[in-house]
Amino acid sequence: MSNIEDFLTKKEEEEIVEAIRIAENKTSGEIRVHIERTTDKDVYERTLDVFHLLKMDNTKERNGVLIYVAVDDKAFVIFGDEGINNIVGSEFWNSTRDKIASQFKLGKFKQGLVDGITEAGRVLSTHFPWHHNDTNELDNTISKG
Asked: Residue 77: helix, strand or coil by DSSP?
């Protein structure tokens, strides 16, 4: 698979965006997905670059979560801002990673992302519950590089 447009169909992308919307209805946390074909950098370093490019470090509570996928590299990283890292333990990151990885291994990329988004939203809602005056600080669409 060498084309990120082949990774997900338009309908699958819409389902992922809807999963983000539903997850964010229960939390003030912000979840984004970024997909690109490959990276010539270390995948973690590239994730940090994308996190800053998407201005995910500018949320009020510093509670953004980025799911970064490098399709051809068969790699993904889940990265959370300092507001999250100061509260949640490694269990949060491991459970979200495992939900995604188990579906990716089966070639179910959309379902892996939806499961990861749902898990992240579930845990975020515990530590960063949605409040009446919350606003959606970041775009829910999938960004591509």
From this structure: strand
